[in-house]
């Protein structure tokens, strides 16, 4: 038996109480890194100990072995417990003995047909789902299946109580996903590929990594094999040991890459869809987001992959480098979110609560007055929301026509230049640099930077600065 942490025990008690009160189907909500599988193992163990049959349904086959290991450690009696991938369970329904309890991992998928047919086949079983994000893209709420949501501690709480590492989130956008179309609930894959699969983008991603995360064990999430391979190649050109993995990579090769990463021989693992939902990935210190997504679930799973604590490094700070603006759609990993079982149409749109530091690209909560990374101060009267990003977005890096800042014809070009170049000493140009150059080149600066300009420029410079 693996002992439960106090908040895990509390969640188990709350689930028991709900089922004791006659609930037939409940969904437990626990943030990534909250130790979901230990809780599931604990519940399965006490069910089998009482002679009740358990069916555990997982979303991916890679998870079966992993969960079987955890369940064994938790003392689950496997003569009464079946662990299976959803498609496999579906095919073998007729041969599967009737369970008393069905556990559903990644329960935000539960409205898909394969899950529904399992539930319909065993109408007498109690259904207990687990997820960090109880919603499904563009579809009905989970209320169609679950009678009650039982929420556990938040991601913020897990960080504050040292169950997760704190993080720094940088949003240097190398591509603008806002014009992409939607297909099956997420961005059109072909359009994403056309947007992302550019040498200049791979190169800039590596530059940013060298600046912000050099040497850190890093997982890069890409949208296509071409992008992932291109990014890995760009890392290798800089002498960084990087490898690419996708669903078609032979098992043995995958294993070798992951083992190499665990031992620190491979520094960067670029992948497509492999490390999304729980695939047993080694811990890492940094994630690089190169796949624009409309899925909050995917965003949270990917960005939080770096946040597991490391007993050998109690001061670990996870790094998240977002090159596709996912934060502009979904906010930060530990934003407080209100969940409900209702369908999306009925829910109020939740307001994003982040803004970006114009000096260092850090993404911080809107309420923050001073950037915790570079000490940039937002003036109270400045009302900056995520729209600020538009000015500093690195649009179409590949087509950037100029190489010297003096050729910049607008503030936007100047900011683009600043974000894609480095000073001779290898350091980044600060926001103040753009303001100085705007004065010299006579370029107009957006009105909302007026208070920043007052602070950052000499008085004679400020008087020469034009605003638009
Ligand atoms: Zn900053």
Automatic annotation (TrEMBL):
Residue ranges occupied by any Helicase C-terminal domain in the UniProt entry: 205-353
Pfam families linked to this entry: Helicase_C, ResIII
Ranges where the Helicase ATP-binding domain occurs: 17-152
Domain Rhodanese: 199-249
Signal peptide feature range: none
Classification via PROSITE patterns: HELICASE_ATP_BIND_1, HELICASE_CTER, RHODANESE_3
Entry GO terms, CC: cytosol
InterPro entries xref list: Helicase/UvrB_N, Helicase_ATP-bd, Helicase_C-like, Helicase_Restrict-Modif_Enz, P-loop_NTPase, Rhodanese-like_dom
Molecular function per GO: ATP binding; DNA binding; hydrolase activity
PANTHER family according to UniProt: ATP-DEPENDENT HELICASE IRC3-RELATED, TYPE I RESTRICTION ENZYME ECOKI R PROTEIN
Name of the protein: Helicase
Species of the source: Phascolarctobacterium succinatutens
Taxonomic lineage from the root: Bacteria, Bacillati, Bacillota, Negativicutes, Acidaminococcales
């Amino acid at each position: 038996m693996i002992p439960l942490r106090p908040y895990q025990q509390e969640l188990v008690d709350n689930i028991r109480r709900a089922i004791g009160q006659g609930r037939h189907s409940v969904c437990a909500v626990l943030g990534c890194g909250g130790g979901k599988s230990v809780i599931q193992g604990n519940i399965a163990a006490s069910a089998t100990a009482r002679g009740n049959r358990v069916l555990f349904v997982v979303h991916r086959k890679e998870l079966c072995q992993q969960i079987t290991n955890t369940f064994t450690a938790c003392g689950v009696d496997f003569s009464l417990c079946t662990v299976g991938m959803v498609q496999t369970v579906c095919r073998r329904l007729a041969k599967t003995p009737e369970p008393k309890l069905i556990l559903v991992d990644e329960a935000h998928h539960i409205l898909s047909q394969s899950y529904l047919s399992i539930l319909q086949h065993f109408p007498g079983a109690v259904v207990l789902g687990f997820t960090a994000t109880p919603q499904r893209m563009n579809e009905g709420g989970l209320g169609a299946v679950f009678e009650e949501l039982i929420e556990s501690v938040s991601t913020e709480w897990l960080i504050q109580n040292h169950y997760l590492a704190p993080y720094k989130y940088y949003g240097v956008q190398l591509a603008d996903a806002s014009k992409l179309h939607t297909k099956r609930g997420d961005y059109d894959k072909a359009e994403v590929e056309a947007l992302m699969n550019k040498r200049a983008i791979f190169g800039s991603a590596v530059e940013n990594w060298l600046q912000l995360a050099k040497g850190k064990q890093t997982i890069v999430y890409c949208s296509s094999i071409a992008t992932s391979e291109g990014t890995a190649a760009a890392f290798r050109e800089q002498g960084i040991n990087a490898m690419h993995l996708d669903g078609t990579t032979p098992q043995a090769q995958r294993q070798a890459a992951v083992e190499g990463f665990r031992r620190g021989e491979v520094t960067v693992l670029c992948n497509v869809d492999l490390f999304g939902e729980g695939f047993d990935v080694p811990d890492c210190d940094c994630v690089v987001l190169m796949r624009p997504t409309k899925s909050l679930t995917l965003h949270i799973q990917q960005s939080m992959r770096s946040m597991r604590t490391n007993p050998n490094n109690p001061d670990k700070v996870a790094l998240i480098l977002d090159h596709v603006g996912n934060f502009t759609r979904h906010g930060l990993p530990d934003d407080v979110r209100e969940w409900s079982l209702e369908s999306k149409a009925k829910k109020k749109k939740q307001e994003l609560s982040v803004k970006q530091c114009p000096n260092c690209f850090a993404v911080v909560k809107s309420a923050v007055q001073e950037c915790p990374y570079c000490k940039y101060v937002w003036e109270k009267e400045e009302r900056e929301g995520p729209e600020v990003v538009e000015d500093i977005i690195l649009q179409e890096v590949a087509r950037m026509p100029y190489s010297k800042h003096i050729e910049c014809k607008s503030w936007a070009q100047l900011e683009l230049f600043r974000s894609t170049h480095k000073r001779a000493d290898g350091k980044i140009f600060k926001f103040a640099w753009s303001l100085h150059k705007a004065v010299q080149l006579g370029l107009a600066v957006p009105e909302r930077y007026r208070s920043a300009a007052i602070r950052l420029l000499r008085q004679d410079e400020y008087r020469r600065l034009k605003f638009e």
